[in-house]
Design brief:
Elements: E1 3-7, H1 17-30, H2 37-43, H3 48-56, H4 65-77, H5 89-98, E2 101-106, H6 111-121, E3 129-131, H7 144-153, E4 160-164, H8 167-175, E5 179-183, H9 190-195, E6 200-202, H10 205-210
Parallel strand pairs: 1-2, 1-4, 2-3, 4-5, 5-6
Length: 231
Amino acid sequence: MERAAVFDVDGTLVDTNHLHVTTWWEAFRQAGHRVPMHAVHRAVGLGSTDLIAHLLGEDRDKDRDAELSAAHKALYGQYFDRLPPLRDADRLLRRLAREGWRVVLATSAGGAELSALRRAISADDAIDATASADDVEEGKPAPEPVEHALELAGVPAGRAVFVGDTVWDMRAGTRAGVRCVGVLCGGIPRADLLDAGAQAVYDDPAHLLATLADSPLADVPGGPDTPTPTG
């Protein structure tokens, strides 16, 4: 009766979305692009190349994509030693792990950035696996990141829930055929998350933890309200 709880990381478990907004804005500014911060915010959650394409368009000088990405990475890297976890993110992951869920992270982060995020969450003992952008050909909103997370968990889509904070998360999870849960702590409006496929929306990990038994996770067989079979 394995089941999987797949989590986005930035803006869902760690309070980093606005750090990404500021550092992407500065990277664009340094390269001579005037991109409004609100537009950057709406694009956070996409992989670097997709984010750049979304904000600058297909007619941009694509030869400069790597330079923009590197500038953002260097600027954001200044915060690696103090990334703030969202309230009760660690407790939520540990609660699910205790109740038999396979906890998998699905993130566009990799390398040193992913290590910094995991240090911030401080719940490695509860995390079974991580699906990063390096593992798939297409990032969110394509379903591949979520599908890869399910492969790592060894769990079918019907026995999984994906928790995220952006419309890209909700679209990816919906396309992968999993139940989707949104959180507001990334700064995206509730209505947008619901329109993108969220079955329910919570304030943050602490709110989801406090109402776990009434959440979509309780609808997964073997979930919080379902007795574990014995014998």
